[in-house]
Amino acid sequence: MTRLNADSRGPGIIPRPGRGLLSRTWLATTDYTWLPRFLDTRGLTRPGRVIIASWCFVFALMAATMQLSNLGADSGLARSVLTVSALSGLYGGVSWSRHATWPNWAQSMTFVVWSDVWLALALLIGVRSAFVGTIGCILFIMIGFYVAVVHSPRVAVAHIGGALVICSLLARSALTDPSNDDWIVFDMYVIICGVIITTAWALQVVWLRLTDDARRAGRDYLTATLNRRGLQDEARQLLRGDPSHSKALVAMLIDVDSFKRLNDTHGHGAGDDALTAIAERLVRAAGPEGVVARIGGDEFVVLRSVDATDIETVAAQIHSAISSTSDLFPVSASTGVSVYLTTAADLPGSAVNMLIEHADNAMYRAKKRGGNRIAWAHMSQH
Predict the structure, then answer these.
(1) How many domains does the chain fold into?
(2) Segments forming the whole domain that contains residue 335
(3) Angle, CA of 30, 31 and 35, to the nearest 5°
(4) pTM for this model (two decimals)
(5) Is 9 part of any domain?
(6) Are 228 and 340 in contact (CB under 8 A)?
(7) Distance in angstroms (rounded) separating the CA atoms of residues 54 and 332
(8) What residues does 339 pair with on adjacent strands?
(9) Do the domain assignments include residue 317?
(10) Does residue 170 sit in the same domain as residue 273?
(11) Which of 185, 217, 249 is the last residue of a domain?
(12) How far apart are the first and last CA of the chain?
């Protein structure tokens, strides 16, 4: 099964909103998996791929037709570069339009690097006029759009830096051509560099804010675990992976014992501290392949995909992680567990709600038996 980045799921505490979003994103490990899941859950993967495929075909057309221009290829090397550039664009367009899923991080980075390299070669070698090549650097913006939306600020800076280097080399060469007006070349160079920098960077900042807000819309503010909305989105991804291995989806509904008494006796601050501590422990216990959500005042849901032979062990480990003797006000919890056995690659949409309902019924049985224990619901099979 594909391991999922903890920062994008229940396992992972997201910093509170505030200043320094760009700096936090720059220093943090980027979660590339969030965008593909976001697009997939909203039916936007296909439209996104079609848009990118269209631009690949445009690049291919421009590289092919440049060979027909008087300012285009004037040597065998130049024609070879433009031919490879055209074929690369055509291949990229076909690849983006054929597949139904978003590429993984390595595939996406390969696409970015390959696009930057061959656009640079086409402008440096395939175009006879350095002034026209300088103007052609505006095409780096289209790659910059993709990088700004899909990748981290570090990748965006690398792309912008590379584009500026190419543009500077071409502008310098254009200035040595006596047929060009130096001030026109200079003004064009400044404009294009400004557009490359500001467009890609502004889009990156705006996109980071939008995605940050989108992530938080699915999060509980106090504990930074998922809320009900976030749980529904993330649950759909749990069993996507290699269908050849036997899997089980474990759903645990956890209710903190005597939580009202804790609030009444020690104040709501103590209650909030307890909930935050429980959330952090559940996050660690669930691991990177689990989902943790707070769905009520003192209720948590943990979903975890495990091997069928490890069901009881995993459930016991997660339940035991709730309590700690180091707490100022120790707490316990009643836990209901429901299990869904499947070998299918995708989980039916109704299965998660069914599992949580069964786990909730089991939790009430654990509560009636005195709390601080696990109760099991019946096991479902697909």
Answers:
(1) 2
(2) 228-381
(3) 125
(4) 0.61
(5) no
(6) no
(7) 57
(8) 250, 379
(9) yes
(10) no
(11) 217
(12) 18
Tell me the average confidence (pLDDT) per consecutive run of 10 residues in the chain, 382 residues long.
35 43 54 73 83 94 86 83 93 91 90 95 91 93 88 88 96 93 94 89 73 69 83 68 62 91 88 91 88 90 88 92 85 91 58 86 92 82 54
How many C-beta atoms surround the C-beta of residue 22 within 10 A?
14
Q: Are residues 234 and 361 in the same domain?
A: yes
Query: Residue 268 maps to which CATH number?
Result: 3.30.70.270
The amino acid that residue 61 corresponds to is L
